[in-house]
Amino acid sequence: MKLTSYEPLNVPMPKMTVTDKQLNERIASIMAQIPTYADKEDSIVELHDKVNAIVTMKENGKPMQGLEEAHLTITVGDGFFPLAFAEGLIGMRRGEKKTIEYQLAGIGTESEDDLSSNIEAIVSIESIRKRIDSELNDEWVKRYIPRFSTVEEFRDDVEAKLAEETDKAREELLRERCSVLLAQRLEEQPTAEEVEGAARNVRASFERDCIKEGKERAQKASEMGIPEDQLDMAFHQAGAMAAAQGKAIAAMADYWNIQPTQKDLDETLQKHFGGDQQAKAKFSTEEGREKLIEMARCELALDTVVADALVFEREEPAQGVQQHAPAHPTLNPFA
Question: What is the C-alpha to C-alpha distance for residues 96 and 198, in angstroms, rounded to an integer?
């Protein structure tokens, strides 16, 4: 396999900087995770209120262990308690006692015929607090982010972390663009068999992501901007690109006669498979080691291609860390 040129690549890149909008949004997100509550004047339970209550729960008439006259702090609608329970709390007042009844998938039923359990929750409201919007000031920072004393220190830290994320996203985008441009230099395109093999890897990576993230195929596809009925086409297209990128990077490894060390092999294994011992075990065989060597050669070759690339910045429509990340993170020729 040969390339039309082995000269350094000219790579256009967007200007990627941390904007005030990104900084303010990140700070708002952090503050939303540290909600502040105050006593309610009307004392009526509403969605997102924090309620202190004495709760006794019964399943099919029998008391549930640990839930007899239990003093609980409940954030209404946070998903920790069943929706029917949260809905039963809404509208209750401080000092009110109420029995909430609903059905729930069997928790400890003995018969396979018992598809659901009848839950009875006896709730007595002790206090109700409402969620309020906090004001970002030095006092809030000292109380909730005690390693800082001022808003300025807090903002500087958040901005520094965003800058790190932006640098990482830029590096990932640069590697992605170098791979794409390098693939365009192939004299011969991948064979149908090579494309099909890469497409299988892309599909497998997609399925693993669905399992890992607990998402349905349609949901994951929607997040990636791909209609579910076009997934097979997307897998094939991604496979064609991955196969071309893999061949082009391997051609550079051959051109430079790259020979990875054992340290390079270990780092490649850790990078792609982390703590997955089952996956790592596949590379303990002679055939697996040969594949690992080829993966490491390509990693080192791409590192060199990126380091030698002639990068020039230009204005591009979307700005920000997320928008500039590779469009399909699962489209990995080494997956």
Answer: 63
pTM to 2 decimal places: 0.71
Q: Is a pLDDT exceeding 90 seen at residue 40?
A: no
Rounded CA separation 327/246 (Å): 18
Q: Is residue 240 scored above 50 in pLDDT?
A: yes
**Tokens (6 digits) for 81:** 């308690």
